[in-house]
From TrEMBL:
Belongs to the LysR transcriptional regulatory family. The keyword Ribosomal protein does not apply. The keyword DNA-binding applies. Transmembrane segments: none annotated. Keywords: DNA-binding, Transcription, Transcription regulation. Pfam families: HTH_1 (PF00126), LysR_substrate (PF03466). This is LysR substrate-binding domain-containing protein. Residues 5-62 form the HTH lysR-type domain. It comes from Bosea rubneri.
Length: 314
């Protein structure tokens, strides 16, 4: 059996293909052209095959070279990822995350599980509060990073993804409530503010029917028919219905999921966790299984129908 191919030789080989030049490859890899040529000879000796067609004036691969290129482009990223993981394996310390209850319960568990497997020596502390309070804690140095929903323009390096907000309820009949009953987080929640502004802009009366800082309690209140709420489309829980414009509710402005770091807390531990969160929550990576279902028209319980109106301020 032949010995495994040195990844350094594979990197040189791939770079030659990309640059179409031994000279430019030497410049990129900080080696002389004779050194680059020597590496290719070593690679071909290890393979027992030529990877470049030397009868051609331009850089052109042999059939064996094309096969090798396919695998080299898979091997090198995995090698880099493995080395990065190994370099970080000895990390230790404490990192403090500030976020909302729904993000802590829905977005972060799987990400933190993977992080803990890779970095057993790191202690992760989570502080749950509304977005305004979390950003204040970040500014005061009480948390190292903040995973929060933001409105309006945001910094490109803080943005993870943009989310559509949708109305959810146990039944579309709730949308006909006068005033409209809402189940919300306390003041300082971006979704609560977005709902209130959208309803005010259309002149729709509303009231706070239920308020909690616990996402499970809010979902339960919505499923029970106590009120309607708004959530990111990707985070719609099971057992509720997404309401559309036909129910007479206003369109909601989107929110941005942002990761903000306390630069005074800069450390390899913080960078490693931030990278894990960005990767895990990227639009192409994150999946939340529970989804809205179409439910039959529900009859609201008497306690929900008779709930007294409250002021718009809640």
């Amino acid at each position: 059996m032949r010995p495994p191919i040195d990844t350094d030789l594979l990197k040189t080989f791939v770079t030659i293909v990309e640059t179409q030049s031994f000279t430019r490859t030497g410049d990129r890899l900080h080696r002389t052209q004779p050194a680059i040529s020597m590496q290719i000879r070593r690679l071909e000796e290890a393979l027992g095959k030529e990877v470049f067609d030397r009868t051609k004036r331009q850089i052109q691969l042999t059939r064996e070279g094309e096969v090798l290129l396919h695998y080299a482009r898979r091997i090198l990223p995995l090698s880099d990822e493995a080395m990065s993981r190994i370099d970080q394996a000895g990390l230790s310390g404490i990192v403090r995350i500030g976020t909302s209850d729904d993000y802590a319960n829905i977005l972060l568990p799987e990400i933190l599980r993977r992080f803990a497997e890779a970095h057993a020596g790191v202690q992760v502390d989570i502080v749950c509060d509304n977005g305004v309070a979390i950003e204040r804690r970040l500014k005061d140095g009480l948390v190292d990073l903040a995973l929060v929903a933001c409105r309006g323009p945001v910094s490109e390096h803080e943005l993870i993804r943009t989310e559509e907000l949708v109305w959810i309820a146990a039944s579309p009949s709730l949308a006909r409530g006068r005033p409209l009953p809402l189940a919300v987080f306390p003041e300082g929640c971006v979704c609560r503010t977005t709902m209130a502004e959208a309803l005010d802009a259309t002149g729709r009366d509303w009231r706070i029917a239920f308020s909690s800082d616990n996402i499970g309690a809010i979902h339960a209140a919505v499923r029970s028919g106590m009120g309607i709420s708004a959530v990111e489309r990707s985070l719609v829980p099971a057992g509720v219905r997404i309401l559309n414009r036909a129910e007479g509710l206003p369109l909601l402005a989107p929110v941005h999921l942002c990761l903000k770091l306390n630069r005074h807390s800069a450390s390899p531990v913080l960078d490693a966790l931030a990278d894990e969160i960005r990767t895990g929550l990227a639009p192409t990576a994150f999946r939340y299984e529970p989804q809205a279902i179409i439910m039959p028209e529900a009859t609201l319980p008497a306690w929900a129908r008779a709930a007294p109106p409250r002021s718009r301020s809640g």
